[in-house]
Amino acid sequence: MNKLAILTGTALLAVALSGCTTTASLNQAGSSTVLPLAEVWAEDWGVANGVQINVAGGGSGAGASGLCAGELDLGDMSRAMKDSEKETCRANGIEPIQWKVAFDGISVVTSDENTFVEDLTVDQLAMIFKGDVMTWDEVDASFPAEDVHLCYPDSDSGTYEYFNEEILGDDVSPRTGSGVQQSPDDNVLVTCLEADENAIGYFGYAYYIENSDRLNLVAVDGTQPTPSTIADGSYHPLSRPIFIYTDGVPESGSTVFEYLDYVFSDGQGLVSEVGYVALDAGTLGEMRSQLGA
Amino acid sequence: MSGDGALLFTADADLHRRRRTERRWKAVLLVGASFSIVGLAVLIVRMLADGVPHMNLDFWSESYSPSGIRGRTAGIFDALVSSILVLGMTMVIAVPVGTAAGIYLYEYAHKSRLTDWIRATVSNLAGVPSVVYGLLGLAIFVRLFADTFGMPRQGTYLAAALTLAVLILPILIVATEEALKTVPATVRHASLGLGATKWQTIRHHVLPYALPGILTGQILALSRAAGETAPLLIIGLPTYQVFQTYGPLATGTPLQVRAYYLASDARQEAIDLAAGAIVVLLLATLALNLLAIFLRDRLQNRIRW
Q: Is the pTM value of this prediction over 0.90?
């Protein structure tokens, strides 16, 4: 019986080894926000040009550490790299270069059963997420006297860090504990929000688009996130660029150069397909001149 | 006489009380048992209801395609092949080592403080959370192997298989030892008494009888490995690659990892695909467990002491 197992195993290995191929390849990993976009680009460009691209998730932090350890050619991030991360990079002889590849509008959402919240100011959002107010009527006297429940992303996520920085301020943590659910999985947040009319939360625009029949969008300072308000920055402060980082500006003709050249041309046409917003002409021109294309 | 009667009477009252306690405990235990059975049934029915409608021909024959998800031409073919490859390699690595360790510990090793310590370690390892094995795999099979043997500095099939192999070793060792325990000592004594060496005894008289148990253990270990996701996520297998590659040093996305990432995707089509993938994982694990039970019964009935 063991003999049989070893035989099958050897056969499997032999088949496996014969399947090995070597092509130009890129390793890409990082933010789960960037992941769906990275996958679509990899497929569209990689198949056409015969380039193998391994795409993985792991979070913005993993994108930075992977690039800085020399393990990745492309580090996906949904927030800018921190100074401490840049230092690690440089200590390893890697010069992190930031590329804006698309825009996302972090969307503040409630259940579609919530009939009272339509528009909140940044200050109100800060009070709600810091835990300065615990019931809705403290936010606005016209709201019901019900407990505020929060559903927001896990602390590993770039979305979480961006929201806290823009809304709560530097080094302020949101309320945790009872009435709060945190999850690395945005679908869990959708479930958390949809059934509870007293819950409020946030995640990437793409998740709102896919679940717009079950969720209500909350305007921030009077502006709703739409492709145009996200792209022109009027959905402020929650409209944010999403990034790919590389080691230095790639040499013309290198695989990374060709990839970015695609991202800043035809690639932009696929951005809306995954629920993000393509770069505006100004930013696109900026990126193309940074690339030297 | 009267003394006896009094005794009988109290015994009778006591019997009523004891029977009442008996009924109560039976009810408590029954509730406990039904919880797990009803829970499992609800889980299976819900998964089947969510997943089966999406399991069409494309689901089996197509590979994952990020843009193809929209056109419903994305399937689990590549992930299924990846899973089979990883599990095959895992078993090739783990089965010889685990079985040998079990045989050595039970048949050869003298009872000493060292073997006691090894046994305790093995049982403790069986209870270590699988994430810890993932971290071990990342540190040793990915990073250390990359630095010392120049292997690719990323989660490869080999790294995944080695990690899962270490994870199921305790199961294999314990199962082998338990199977050897069921073979009566008299069989060994008779063989040794006729002049057979220890290895001849083990090879021809102990192992054939222990085989059903060992085999069951191997299948259960395989089913455990098939269900593990966390260690594979930690060692960093990709979620998507442009061209599927299959080989020890190649990398890819086994079904568990694919299901995990699909389930957290925003697109409904991806979530549907995840539901199908989860049904496949569930059925594979159930099938392996049933096979283990079937084999154990079949082979054990054939043994005539």
A: no
